[in-house]
Amino acid sequence: MTSTEQTDYVTDVDGVLQITIATAANGTSMDFAGINAGNAALRAPGFDAGAILLTGSGANFCAGGDVRGFAAAQDRSVHIHGLATDLHEFVRALDAARVPVIAAVHGWAAGAGMSLVLAADIAIGGSSTKMRPAYPGIGLSPDGGMSWLLPRIVGTGRASEILLTDAILDAEEARRLGILSRVVEDEQVLAEARALATTLANGPRSTHASIKKLLVQSKTASLSEQLDSEREAIATAAASPAGREGVDAFAQKRKPNYAGQA
Question: Which SUPFAM superfamilies does the record match to this protein (predicted)?
Fold first, then answer.
């Protein structure tokens, strides 16, 4: 996408790919037109954004799945299987992205909406933000990666309690648990998240990619293996355009300019 190209669900401005994952239609339930448009944008051959921003329009970030749509489906199992397939392809694309993923979480993030918050690298919530797994309330099990992501953020025991009791988490509790990175005033959520995404998009993209890769590897690596990976990564970075610019700028006592740096 160019810096001015946009669709109803995906915009690319100043290096930030903004994806709307829920709309006011159907009570801010997950909008799969947005999910699929976002998935297509993330997998496009010309993808060159420096950050990804997940947002919802309407009163909430995402109130979860369209339960009325579930109920109306001729074959509920087939219907939900198809939705989960599309959602999971989107989560895989977010996970594979070499750039930071930021979620602007206003209002409720429930069900699969909460899963997408967990999938973000940085999540910014408002003082009124609330989260809830919501699956036990409708007799379903988690999707969107929640059963994998939540225990890695809050620990297995706490994740079990949250999922099994269908706990409602307010903004401060979500921040304390590490689900939200920070909490701001409700009206500042989108502006704060967009400003952060723009700052990251204009930063050293190769550094961000390396950080994300190291964090993923750390989930299964031993300390010794991770030390080897860090050594190779920092040595590679030292010879990269971004690494040279960053070190030279520090030595010359100026602000680094990472524009055009890989």
Answer: ClpP/crotonase
